[in-house]
Specification:
The protein is mainly alpha-helical. The protein has a single domain, classed as Response regulator (Rossmann fold). Helices cover 36% and strands 6% of the residues. A two-stranded parallel ribbon has the order 1-2. Helix 3 links the parallel strand 1 and strand 2. Helix 2 packs across helix 4. The protein starts with a helix and ends in a 17-residue tail after the last helix. The mean pLDDT is 84. This is Arsenate reductase, ArsC-like protein. It holds the Pfam family LMWPc. InterPro entries: Ptyr_pPase, Ptyr_pPase_sf.
Length: 137
């Protein structure tokens, strides 16, 4: 969800960002994620679950954002220019569609704040708590 939401936020902001999403393990794109993103006009067709080692040039990112505590702990060290950010969200897996929607909306607000900061040449929010207008579940 984070990849699709970030791509959409960048598109709306007129930014050409190269966005990739990866997890600590490859599983599958969950049906609930497809459902709640389709409700806001986004498709996960063509998306797949992947690990960091499956994305292009995995050691050369400007920003690496983790969205759960276990990913933050397992995230490798990055050289020089990479800025690591942690925006923790509750994993909606196993929860109701309402829970998935709440996490989708929180993610959307967070990535919008991140992309708007980039667009405006401002410092990006260092953490979830530093982001303006992110709804709390």
């Amino acid at each position: 969800m984070a990849e699709a939401l970030t791509r959409e936020a960048a598109r709306r902001a007129g930014l050409a960002l190269d966005v990739h999403s990866a997890g600590t393990e490859a599983t599958r794109v969950k049906d609930e994620a497809k459902t709640v993103l389709s409700e806001i006009g986004l498709s996960l067709d063509g998306h797949s679950s992947k690990t960091l080692w499956d994305v292009p040039n995995a050691q050369n990112f400007e920003y690496v954002i983790t969205v759960c505590d276990s990913a933050a702990e397992a995230c490798p060290v990055y050289p020089g220019q990479t800025q690591r950010l942690h925006y923790p969200f509750t994993d909606p897996s196993g929860g109701s569609l309402e829970r998935w929607r709440a996490v989708r909306d929180q993610l959307a607000a967070q990535v919008d704040a991140f992309v708007q900061a980039l667009r405006q040449g401002q410092p990006v929010p260092a953490s979830y708590a530093d982001s303006p207008a992110v709804p709390v579940a």
